[in-house]
């Protein structure tokens, strides 16, 4: 079946006018879109949709690998070989003699091995840093969490979640005291970063939490629209709030 999938991709790249013209650059935004559609399916708890979106994402892996093969840079076997080598190298507690005491040791070893890999390859940005390897293109909340995780891996972290919460309260007050728009932007950023820290220390993924809240808001607002219908534009805030509360009350707890 795998060989059949690869053969279909190869045929598309030979015979479909659109597929023939594509490059890594022209399709990278579609790859990102497919990754987010997979996340949506997982969030929805829909196994059929998750299966479909995994297939779409897998197609993009094969597609990019075939583009590289036709460019003469690498092929699918190179992709799989490099990934398998990396997985074995980064799991010495599974494939070697390393002994770990739990997840914390696994994550610290993982980051140490990644830093060693970058040092060997000479890919550090401005000298070795614990923060190397966090993509700039990540969504801001996710990037903040990854930066914090990497700093925490070398001991730069709040001792407890309560200490992180005290920082949230401090940053919230600084938002209120911001003197101008530039200062406000800085302080709002600091507040969001502090909230990410607190969430992380409490075991909550901030990106997931915000996606859930946005979905909840969208669901309830659509219910308000359906309730008020053509009167939405003329309805006052009090009537909208009542419709909102009604929509909220109807949701299963």
TrEMBL record:
Family matches, as SUPFAM superfamilies: all-alpha NTP pyrophosphatases (SSF101386)
- An MF annotation (GO) of this entry: nucleoside triphosphate diphosphatase activity
Concerning Gene3D superfamilies, the annotation shows: MazG-like
Query: Where does the record place a coiled coil?
Result: none
Membrane-spanning ranges: none
CDD domains in UniProt = NTP-PPase_MazG_Cterm, NTP-PPase_MazG_Nterm
Q: Which GO terms describe its biological process?
A: dATP catabolic process; dGTP catabolic process; dTTP catabolic process; dUTP catabolic process; response to stress; TTP catabolic process; UTP catabolic process
Domain NTP pyrophosphohydrolase MazG-like: where?
Answer: 22-95, 166-221
Query: Which key words are in the record?
Result: Hydrolase
Protein name per its UniProtKB record:
Nucleoside triphosphate pyrophosphohydrolase
Which organism's genome codes for this protein?
Rubrivirga marina
């Amino acid at each position: 079946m795998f060989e059949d999938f690869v053969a279909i991709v190869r045929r598309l790249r030979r015979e479909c006018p659109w597929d023939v013209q594509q490059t890594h650059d022209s399709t990278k935004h579609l790859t990102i879109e497919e990754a987010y559609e997979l996340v949506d399916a997982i969030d929805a708890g829909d196994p059929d949709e998750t299966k479909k979106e995994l297939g779409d994402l897998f197609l993009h892996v094969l597609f990019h690998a075939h583009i590289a093969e036709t460019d003469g840079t690498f092929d699918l076997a190179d992709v799989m070989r490099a990934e398998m080598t990396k997985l074995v190298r980064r799991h010495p507690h599974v494939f070697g003699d390393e002994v770990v005491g739990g997840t914390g040791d696994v994550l610290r070893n993982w980051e140490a091995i990644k830093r060693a890999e970058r040092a060997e390859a000479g890919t550090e940005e401005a000298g070795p840093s614990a923060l190397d390897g966090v993509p700039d293109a990540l969504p801001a909340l996710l990037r903040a969490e990854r930066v914090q995780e990497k700093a925490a891996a070398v001991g730069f972290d709040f001792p407890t979640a309560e200490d992180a919460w005290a920082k949230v309260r401090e940053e919230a007050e600084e938002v209120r005291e911001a003197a101008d728009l530039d200062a406000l932007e800085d302080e709002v950023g600091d507040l969001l970063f502090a909230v990410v820290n607190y969430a992380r220390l409490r075991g909550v993924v901030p990106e997931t939490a915000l996606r859930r809240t946005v979905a909840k808001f969208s669901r309830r607002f659509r219910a308000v629209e359906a309730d008020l219908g053509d009167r939405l534009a003329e309805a006052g805030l009090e009537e909208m709030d009542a419709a909102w509360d009604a929509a909220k009350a109807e949701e299963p707890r």
